[in-house]
């Protein structure tokens, strides 16, 4: 019993197959499906485990009930989509950049999966951009420690581009601007390479416009802006198709007035 308790402490959130592999390695033989099912049921009845969703469990910390025990929701997202990568606004949060905390956790995956819910949080799988191909879950991805377990999350550079590429997944322009202004350093080579890989001219213009507006804050070299300028659209594109605005000529980009003037900073 001590061995399984050690597993629970080391794996505060785990998938059924992880426990099975652990027990099989301990015993040196296979474990029947029925034995695994009864073992999990026993620990749930004893209040040691909380069923998060089918095949996914959380360890109930000593001194807590299953209803009150803290559960790391980023681990839930990572374990709930084991081939996925935490991204977009969730990656901003994990990197300590997000201006606001959302009640949605986003996971990029190659599969089409439904959103699920746990303790007031929406866990939303996002289909990876087709342009990324086989590298969608490896390009611009790093590991991060959560409670002693590794999770996969997009790097600050990929996250920076991703939220400008998909502002709907970044929380909107004000949230994106306020969050990205928390950056202190970026690898511009990685940024430009990732923009090229996405092959979206509007995204290239959005990235270029943001960096130009924050060139002092981020020490942006003119060569970086020139590289992005070459990727801009040949005709005029809207930064946000739902809004008008003014033309940022260098980027062939019509920028909403509230973004250009940072209207959210005006006194209420």
Description:
There is one protein chain. The protein is α+β, with helices and mostly antiparallel strands and 268 residues long. It has 2 domains: 58 residues, Arc Repressor Mutant, subunit A (Orthogonal Bundle), CATH 1.10.10; 193 residues, no CATH class. 41% of the residues lie in helices and 19% in strands. The protein is built from 13 helices and 12 strands. A hairpin with a 2-residue loop joins strand 8 and strand 9. The radius of gyration is 22 Å and the shape is elongated. It starts with a helix and ends in an 8-residue tail after the last helix. The model has no long low-confidence stretch (mean pLDDT 94).
List the main descriptive attributes of the protein structure presented here.
single chain; 268 residues; alpha+beta; Arc Repressor Mutant, subunit A; 2 domains; 4-stranded mixed beta sheet; 3-stranded antiparallel beta sheet; 13 helices; 19% strand
H/E series: HEHHEEHEHEEEEEHHHHHHHEEEH
The count of helical stretches stands at 13
Query: What would you report as the Rg, rounded to the nearest angstrom?
Result: 22 Å
Q: Indicate the multimeric state.
A: single chain
- Helix/strand-derived category reads alpha+beta
What order do the strands of the largest sheet run in, or round the barrel if closed? 4-5-7-6
Low-confidence stretches: none
Based on Cα principal axes, name the global outline. Answer: elongated
Helix content: 40-55%
* % residues in beta strands: 15-25%
Instruction: Tell me, rounded to a whole number, the average pLDDT.
Output: 94
What count of domains describes the coordinates? 2
Termini, distance in Å? 60 Å
DSSP strand tally? 12
């Amino acid at each position: 019993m001590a061995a399984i308790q050690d597993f629970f402490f080391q794996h505060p959130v785990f998938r059924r197959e992880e426990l099975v592999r652990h027990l099989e390695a301990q015993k040196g033989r296979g474990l029947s499906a029925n034995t695994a099912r009864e073992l999990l049921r026993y620990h749930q009845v004893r209040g040691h485990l909380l069923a998060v969703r089918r095949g996914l469990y959380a360890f109930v910390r000593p001194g807590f009930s299953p209803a009150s025990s803290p559960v790391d929701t980023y681990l839930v997202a990572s374990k709930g989509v084991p081939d996925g990568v935490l991204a977009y606004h969730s990656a901003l949060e994990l990197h300590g950049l997000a201006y606001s905390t959302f009640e949605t956790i986003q996971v990029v995956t190659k599969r089409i999966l439904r959103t699920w819910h746990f303790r007031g949080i929406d866990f939303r799988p996002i289909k990876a951009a087709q342009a990324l191909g086989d590298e969608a879950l490896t390009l611009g991805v790093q590991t991060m420690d959560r409670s002693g377990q590794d999770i996969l999350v997009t790097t600050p550079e990929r996250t920076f581009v991703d939220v400008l590429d998909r502002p709907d997944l970044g929380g909107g322009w004000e949230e994106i601007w306020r969050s990205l202004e928390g950056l202190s350093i970026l690898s511009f080579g990685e940024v430009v390479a990732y923009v090229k890989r996405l092959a979206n001219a509007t995204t290239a213009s959005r990235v270029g416009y943001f960096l130009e507006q924050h060139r002092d804050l981020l020490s942006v070299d003119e060569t970086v802006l020139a590289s992005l300028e070459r990727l801009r659209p040949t005709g005029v594109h809207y930064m946000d198709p739902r809004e008008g605005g003014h033309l940022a000529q260098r980027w062939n980009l019509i920028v909403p007035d509230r973004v250009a003037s940072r209207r959210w900073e005006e006194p209420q």
